[in-house]
Specification:
Structural class: alpha+beta
Distance between the termini: 90 Å
Shape: elongated
Number of helices: 4
Order of helices and strands: HHEHEEEEEEHE
Strand content: 25-35%
Strand order of the largest sheet: 2-4-5-8-7
């Protein structure tokens, strides 16, 4: 009876295969099969892309978390190249790292627009801080949008200050672009922005 069962199973498989081949030979069924194959391939590609994006997102979040938890270090051109010494560091390499530095604010304030804090649109107040090794562009605070212009922001203090902040990637906006600012200021500029922590000198 076992041999008979095997024979029956073989006959069923042969019948299914012949039926499938005959069906695919029909023009309309062949078109449907081709369309289903393309859909399946598209689903595989889309799924693979989503998995890669998820893995990259996890990697980026882990890197930013490590940066945020790392101990504060002095700002230097080793970790953040100047415009005259190297290329712009990657987002995962510097963003949220806490650094300290000392210098003197230059008497100028620029504004980065398109920022939103607590549902309020406005601008980051940005001031150059001249250190012994170069200039770092410091995000001193936030000014709400007032009729299309930044509201009044406290001027940067005069004299030498020591500040602590978190690094941010550079902006494509001219005010936050180190290469553009290096040409304007006539001095090398660190290729990252420094966002002040609360209660720091110059915070606005």
């Amino acid at each position: 009876s076992s041999d008979l069962q095997v024979i029956v199973e073989q006959r069923i498989v042969e019948f299914v295969v012949r039926t499938l081949i005959w069906t695919l030979r029909q023009r309309r069924y062949a078109s449907i099969a081709a369309a289903m194959l393309l859909i399946a391939i598209g689903c595989v590609i889309a799924g693979t892309w989503q998995i890669q994006r998820f893995r990259q997102s996890v990697h980026d979040n882990d890197a930013l978390d490590r940066n945020a938890r790392a101990a504060s270090v002095p700002l230097s051109s080793v970790g953040v190249p100047l415009t005259s010494t190297g290329s712009t560091p990657g987002r995962d390499a510097i963003r949220y790292r806490t650094v300290t530095t000392s210098g003197t604010y230059l008497p100028t304030t620029a504004y980065l627009d398109g920022k939103v804090i607590s549902d309020t649109g406005g601008y980051y107040a940005l001031s150059p801080l001249r250190t012994s090794t170069g200039i770092v562009l410091v995000i001193r605070g936030f000014g709400a949008d007032v009729a299309g212009h930044p509201g009044q922001v406290t001027p940067a203090p005069s004299g030498r200050v020591s500040v602590t902040g978190r690094l941010e990637t550079v902006s494509s906006d001219r005010a936050g672009n180190p290469t553009e600012q290096a040409q304007t200021l006539g001095s090398p500029v660190y290729q990252a922005l420094l966002k002040l922590l609360p209660t720091q000198p110059g915070g606005a």
